User: Which sequence fits this backbone?
């Protein structure tokens, strides 16, 4: 997919259409969509230096009939970044002091059954497993 916000909705729709007919519970679909949206947005917003463009951002989804987990594999040729190494967010003291953003990686960690990262041939490969049950 192109490294553009406009491509986000098309990619999201394609992934959700792929898994739509595979009897996933609403909870699993929610977790899958959360991981998909947060990871794609992080890649689109942060993987590439300001002003640079790449069309080398991809998402692969394991067959939704997999017995235990659905696997999402995100690859890009952006700057090296291991999401597993990102610090936990700092929680605001009050709702008034809260600012939008900064919780996507935390939420992804909470709903994923596991994740893995590798830098291979100049590419980030981030694999996230979402439990079916």
Assistant:
């Amino acid at each position: 997919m192109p490294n553009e916000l406009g491509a986000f909705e098309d990619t999201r729709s394609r992934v959700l259409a792929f898994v739509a007919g595979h009897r996933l519970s609403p909870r699993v679909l929610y977790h899958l969509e959360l991981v998909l949206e947060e990871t794609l947005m992080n890649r689109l917003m942060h993987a590439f230096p300001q002003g640079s463009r790449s069309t080398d951002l991809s998402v692969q989804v394991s067959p939704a009939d997999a017995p235990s987990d659905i696997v999402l594999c995100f690859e890009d040729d952006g700057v090296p970044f291991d999401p597993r190494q990102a610090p936990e967010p700092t929680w605001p003291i009050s709702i008034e002091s809260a600012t939008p953003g900064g919780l996507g990686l935390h939420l992804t960690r909470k709903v994923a059954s596991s994740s893995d990262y590798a830098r291979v041939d100049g590419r980030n490969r981030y694999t996230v497993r979402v439990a079916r049950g």
